[in-house]
Amino acid sequence: MTLQSLTIRRPDDWHVHLRDGDMLRAVAPYTARQFARAIVMPNLSPPVTSVAAASAYRTRIAAAAGRNSETRFTPLMTCYLTDAADPDELARGHAEGVWVAAKLYPANATTNSAHGVTDLAAIRPTLERMQAIGMPLLIHGEVTDPDIDIFDREAVFIDRILGGLVRDFPALKIVLEHITTKEAAEFVTDAPATVAATITPQHLHLNRNALFAGGLRPHAYCLPVVKREAHRLAVRAAAVSGSPKFFLGTDSAPHAVDAKESACGCAGIFNAPHALESYATVFEAEGALDKFEGFASEHGPRFYGLPLNDGTVTLQRAETTVADRVAGLVPFHAGESLGWRFME
Ligand code: NCD
Ligand code: ZN
Is domain 8-311 classified as CATH 3.20.20.140? Predict the structure, then answer.
C-alpha cells in the first residue's frame, strides 16, 4: 500500500538566503512556514561581519517571518568571513549566542562575495579560534580561478583547498555547502566525522541539461552550477543514504525576476515555497522515504550540537501545482506539479 501521508519531526533549513528589506518580508514567511530554524547566509550588501549587524538582522528576520515568529521560527545567524576577520569579535558573537557558525566565501565565488576571503592564510587565527570554541565553518567550496572550467570548480576546490584544511584543523567542524559533484559526495563520505555537507533540492532534481532545455533557462541557474547527470545521481545517493553527514540546506536564493531574466542573470533559485515537497519527491523516487526524517530533521542539529525540534510537520500525498509566480518571484518547479502537499 502506498503511503498516504508522511509525518516527520519539524525540520530545519541549514542554508538559506533571506535577503533584507522588502525581499526579506516577501520570502521569510515561506521558510518560516516549513522550517523551525534556518541557518541564514550573511551575504547581504554590505556583508554581515559584526555582532551588532548580525543581531539587528536577526531581529528584522524575526519580524518578517510573520505572526508568532519568535516562538515558531528561529533564525540562526552566520558571520561572513573576510581577510580582516577578527577572532575576538567572532568568539564574542558565538559566546553571546548571536553567531552559530561562520561562512567562508572565496572572494568573488558568487553573489555578494566580493568581500570574501582572498587568502586562507589571512584567516588561520580565526579558524584556530573556531576550532577551539566548537564553532562550525560553512564553506562555499568553489575555486574562483577563471582558468578553471566552471563545472570543475568544486572538485578543484576539494583537491586544492579542502583536503588540506581538514588535515590542518582536525577538530574544526566543517560543512561543505550545497554539494553538486560525485567528488564532493565521496570526499565528505570518506572524511572524518567533523565534515558534513548540505544538499539543495535543485541539485537533486536537475542536471546541466536543465540550463539549456529548449533555450537558455535562467531560473535553473544557481551556484555552484548544476552538473552532469552522473554527479546528480551521486548527490542523490548521498542524500538518501541515511549517513548523518548529509542534511537539508535549500540554498533558497531569491532574485527579482528581471535580475534573473537578464543579459547577465543572477545566480540563485527560490525554492523556499515548496522545499519539503520537492525533497520528498526525491526520497520517494529513490525508495527512501524512511530516510527523509534523518536528512531533514536529525542530522543537521546533531552535527551542529543543537537540540532536535519538538513537534512535527505532515506532507500528504496530493497534487501540489506550483504557481508561476510566488511573492512576485519565479519559484523552483514553477508550473510543475509535485506529488506531495505540505499541510499547515
Ligand atoms: C546565492 C545568492 O544569490 O546569494 N546564489 C546561489 O546561486 N546559490 C549565493 C550562493 O549561495 O552561492
Ligand atoms: Zn547559498
Answer: yes
